[in-house]
Specification:
By secondary structure, the chain is of the alpha+beta class. The chain has one domain. The protein is built from 3 helices and 7 strands; from the N terminus they run αβββββββαα. The chain has helices at residues 2-38, 105-112, 114-119, and strands spanning 44-52, 57-59, 65-67, 71-81, 84-91, 94-95, 99-100. Strands 1, 4, 5, 6 and 7 form a 5-stranded antiparallel sheet that branches. The radius of gyration is 18 Å and the shape is globular.
């Protein structure tokens, strides 16, 4: 009986860690998108990916280790500013550097397919 209680405890605690990871990433997304809005940038979109039960371990630039707690979340924010296109990755470890994209093809694709992207599931490659 004790083993069942221990297994139940481990299952519940791992689920709460995953929820904390998701809440943390969602708070970073909210902060970043609000900063875009504060700069009068309204042309942006977000893609979200997650893997349940996956623990990722990263070594950050400052040498600090970062791990996901059973669920790895990664979010990509795309936006346009002053005629240039940018991308930023946000994951369980925080905000990564913004990168300028070479062209705006992604925005052209999203713009021309926005209705389908909102209503349908994106197929895996």
């Amino acid at each position: 009986m004790k083993i069942y209680i221990l297994l139940l405890f481990l299952l519940v605690s791992s689920m709460s860690f995953a929820q904390n990871d998701e809440a943390y990433v969602n708070s970073l997304i909210s902060e970043f998108t609000q900063s875009l809005k504060n700069r009068n940038i309204d042309t942006f979109f977000i893609t979200e990916r997650y893997c349940l039960g996956k623990t990722r371990i990263f070594t950050l630039e400052n040498g600090r280790m970062c791990t996901s707690q059973g669920t790895y979340y990664e979010v990509y924010v795309f936006w346009q500013e002053e005629g240039k296109s940018f991308i930023k990755k946000i994951d369980n470890c925080g905000l990564l550097s913004s990168l300028e994209l070479a062209n705006d093809q992604i925005f052209a694709f999203v713009s021309s397919n926005s209705k389908d992207l909102k209503q349908n599931t994106v197929k895996k490659i």
